[in-house]
């Protein structure tokens, strides 16, 4: 019985470390490139949040449906609802899945 508890504890720690590494690595702007569109429109009926990192990290603002913005970079971040493309703007990052951005990388 002692062996089983120890093994379970070790496996749990390994999974926790793996989860933390994955979560942290998703909040970086990987492979940044120039955006393929100069102006992008928010298409989501609930708008879109501006985040401080390219993931569902801290919200620093938001845009309503129909709002237009000019992204400065296109990069890969956390996968959200099938898309991992994030657009960098002056204030932070916007998930491309809630916009009409033409070049979205699926995950």
Describe the structure.
With 107 residues, this protein is of the alpha+beta class. The chain has one domain. It is 22% helix and 34% strand. The protein has a 6-stranded antiparallel beta sheet with strand order 1-6-7-8-3-4, with no helix packed on it. A two-stranded antiparallel ribbon has the order 2-5. A hairpin with a 2-residue loop joins strand 7 and strand 8. It starts with a helix and ends in a 12-residue tail after the last strand.
Question: Quick summary of this structure?
Answer:
With 107 residues, this protein is α+β, with helices and mostly antiparallel strands. Helix content is 22%, strand content 34%. It has one domain (2-98).
What composes the largest sheet?
Answer: 6 strands, antiparallel
Measured between the Cα atoms of the first and last residue, the distance is: 41 Å
- What is the mean pLDDT? 83
What is the beta-strand fraction? 25-35%
- State Rg: 18 Å
Write out the strand line-up for the largest beta sheet, numbering strands in chain order. 1-6-7-8-3-4
What are the low-pLDDT stretches, counting only 5+ consecutive residues below 50?
21-25
Query: In percent, how helical is the residue content?
Result: 10-25%
- The succession of helices and strands, N to C, reads HEEEEEEEE
Shape: elongated
Q: Looking at the chains present, what oligomeric state does this protein adopt?
A: single chain
Helix segment tally: 1
Beta strands, count: 8
Structural class: alpha+beta
Number of structurally distinct domains: 1
């Amino acid at each position: 019985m002692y062996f089983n508890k120890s093994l379970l504890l070790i496996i749990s720690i390994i999974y926790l470390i793996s989860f933390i590494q994955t979560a942290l690595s998703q909040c970086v702007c990987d492979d940044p490139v120039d955006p393929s569109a100069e102006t992008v429109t928010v298409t989501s009926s609930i708008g879109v949040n501006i985040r401080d990192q390219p993931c569902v990290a801290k919200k620093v603002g938001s845009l309503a449906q129909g709002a237009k913005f000019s992204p400065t970079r296109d990069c890969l971040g956390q996968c959200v609802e099938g898309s991992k493309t994030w657009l960098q703007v002056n204030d932070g990052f916007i998930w491309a899945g809630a916009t009409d951005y033409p070049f979205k990388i699926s995950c």
